[in-house]
Amino acid sequence: MTGETTVRTAVRIHGRSAQREAVRALLDGLRARSGHLVVTGEPGLGRTALLQWAADSFRAGPVLRLGPGEDRGAPATAGELLTTLRKAAGEAPLLVCVDDAHLWDAPARSALSHAAERLHTAGRVALLLSVAGHRAVDPEFARLPVVRLDPLAPSHADALLDEVTDGSTDPAVREHLLAEAEGNPALLLALVRRLTPAELRGLRPLPRPTADAGTLAAVAGSALTCPSADARDLLLTVAAAVRAADGPDVDTRLVLDALRHLDPVSAPTANPLPDVLAGAGDRLRFHSPLLCRAVHATAAPDRRRAAHRALADVLEADGQPLPALLHRSWSLSGPAPVARLADRLAAVAADGTTPASHGLRGTAYARAAELTADAPVRAERYTAAAEQALLAGRPDRARPLLAAARDCAAPAVVRGRAERVRGLAELRDGPVGDAHQSLLLAASLLAEDAPAEAASAALAAADAAWAAGDLSSCLATLSLGPAPVPRDAAGMLGPAAPDAATGADGLPGAVDLAGAVDGAGPGGVPVPTDQPGHRHAADPRHAADPRQVVAPRHANAPGHATAPGHATVPGHATPGYAAVPSAVLAGGRTGGATPRTDAGARGGPGGTRVCGAVPDPVRDHRVGMRALLEGRLDRAAPSLGQVVERARTDDRPETLLRAASAALLLGNVDAARRAGARALAATRQSGSEALVPQALEYLAYAELRAGRHPQARAHAEEGLRTALRAGQRNTAAHHQAVLALAASIEDEPATVARHVTAALATARRHGLAQAATLAEWAAARADLGRGRPQDAADRLGLLVLPGPGRGHFAVWRLAVPCFVEAAALAGRPEDTHEVLTDFAGWAAFGADPQAAAQLARCHALLAPPDRADDLYRRALARHDEAGGDFERARTALLYGKWLRRRRRPREARGRLGTALAGFDRCGAGVWAAQARAELRALGAAPQGGGAGTLTGLTPQQLRIARHVAEGATNREVALTLAVSTRTVDYHLRKVFAVLGVRSRLELARMVEHADRTRGDRRAGDRM
């Protein structure tokens, strides 16, 4: 221990919303029934804290805590236990908390398990158990429902650190502690306790390693106990092997071969496995990552080095040079630099022909840096490690590596690369204003020695300005950014890179994190020249390194940009910047794939990079984006068309993602979907975890634009999971906005609210103007769909009306049709005149094929009766030309309403029926309910037993509807059906949406009518 920092006790649980919801449901259920739940997780994740939270939250009755041993009152049989519970409960509900139930002996565990299955005989009892997650669940508890504690998300770990240190931790120290803790709250607190106040504030260097053997052992506790020397060797060898593995598991044969090297006399075996290990096929892994680290750190140093030496021998014999070199480096007996080994590690890590993941290459670069004495080279290797960590989807690991690089003296080009990585990490998971400044600094530092990398950094800075909604900064950055390297140039683009993968000293000087893939593509559509507003095609995530291009054939002639408006999804400006950059290696190497050999992609063995006479994608994107921002589609189409065409013969993720973005801008939604799907497959195959959320975002936007809302939702849901797993909160915010937009046309207002809240939480904190605008729009569209035009108009007015609070410059115009509809229905047509004039200019620009139909619909809503009829028909005709079920159905619905109110029922019935079919086709449940309600008002029964009948309800929804119709409150229904009130609320909202009713009285009348109709039908059948 090096310090004596007093850590404040955390006063609340951070994160754990799903786990707390499961516990809350168990406690809520006690109103009507007994229940049980098992909480599991590795040491330090907070099993005891969750049980304590449950006990503190329970107010309905007593809390009983049971533990092993006679002195703790654990009965010996199930019958005795139930008797104890019955006495403790009396007439009130009882919560029983059993912490560390795995420590009970086998008979007691069996009694506990049998009692759990018979709790109903003891009254209303909730049994909450916790068991260790570092070992397999005991068979006695295997049948019980389980909730698992996972490591804290970065934001929650960050909040915990702030709480216990009053936010006084130095930023670099904070990043290091969060990376070392890996989401384990107990380990994070132990690390804070280990440091002195001066170390926490960055005034003194941190101890190395920060998570030392004593700290890890204290958190692991009794889980480290191991009965035999053979078992200890097995655990140590697995733990050592994991350090140089691509994942949490390792090859069983490798471990056994290494054990034979350790002890040639014995016959090692993996059977039976120690409890802390799990075997699956020919792979071994620890149940607990923390325990894996603790086993390695607490082993005797000589034995640990011997294990690494044995693994190195086996791997060298198997022809696996990179992990073999890593293990060889860890077998060294001291921390002194070893120049030759460090150079070999860096060279092999940079060799694109060596199969290895980005994560493993990053580990190798970091270890090479640790063994390097020369400060500039050490800084360059730390930077290379950070680049690889970012590619692997681990920005949490990249930041401490950048801090280590910053501590070393380095030339401008190395500092520029480090600043670029830092900026890109912020662009994905931090304030985009900070990212903009870091990337501008990177471009400046790289300009002289690495102009191509400087160009991509400048484009990434423009991307950050785009994300922030700062149009002037975006244009200024595009105008002032470094020019690409001339296409006939040949020479060094950096001091350390003979090709896309390897530098002169074995470093990846050409890793193009900003320009190779880069990001989610343009986020908007072209706007008229007097008010530019399209997402830039020169987005750094679309700008490739000049060495990466293939001579294309022209995809779209300048005059062929027939539907540029397809660049946006309904309600979007194209993929939000936030799928953000995704760094892929220039030269097309991802995850160790074979380096490219096409012209301009590779340099010779002497260390030069050749730029062949082929089109420059950085320039293409810059020209295209600049033209789009200026509203000059004729200049943008040729450049972006080349980007799309280039992907026809290229399967690299970065090229495909760039093509998907350009296709969205050019209006070719089918091409965008194809490129996005191919990009997703390529990123998964290459192991580029950082790119997967971006590919899924492209797909989600393309599917939305094509009117395939269920598919868009599926892709966004997966994209959200992968973005959070990769530490890309900004990307996750855009996926949340997509999910909110998709849900806004369905019958799930609670889902819309949840996604809007999540998207805005990140957007406001990190300055994501585009994500915030999309989320607010989704909330307003949900209000409009649910028949609340006044609320929708209030919300949309803030987004589209002139003023400082107007939404993102590339998005707000897309919300104008919704605003006009809401304002007209709310009796506020005068609010629409100015924005409708602007929208007319947008439609005339020709960027969005839906805009002309939407404009006609807006005019129809505001027109006098003698003109509205013709405008509605004109709008429907334009929809027929443009396609898109949802927007056409909305126009048909409004037209049908207008016709019904003009007492033209026959025409109205036809339009409303068409609208209902269109909404059903695209899954727009909340809008379909409006159409059904209008048809009912006409006396027409919607086809398919929709609203107005009970046949569309699920059995649970029908039960709840009948109870509510009888006058029961939600709480009474919950008690009757033994569910939580939240469940009743959720299903009742579904019932209202499906039946198209708006009050309990209307529901009661409908249920009564349905029952009477069914009774009359049965009477007729009997006759």
- Report the average pLDDT across residues: 79
Distance between the termini: 91 Å
Largest sheet: 5 strands, parallel
General form: flat
Would you count the extended β strands for me?
10
In the sheet with the most strands, the strands line up as 2-3-4-1-5
- Low-pLDDT stretches are 481-613, 944-948, 1017-1023
Strand content: under 5%
Rg on CA atoms, Å: 31 Å
Number of helices: 43
Helix % is: 55-70%
Structural class of the helices, strands and pairings? mainly alpha
Spell out the key features of this protein.
three-stranded antiparallel β-sheet; disordered C terminus; mainly alpha; 1023 residues; flat; five-stranded parallel β-sheet; 10 strands; 43 helices
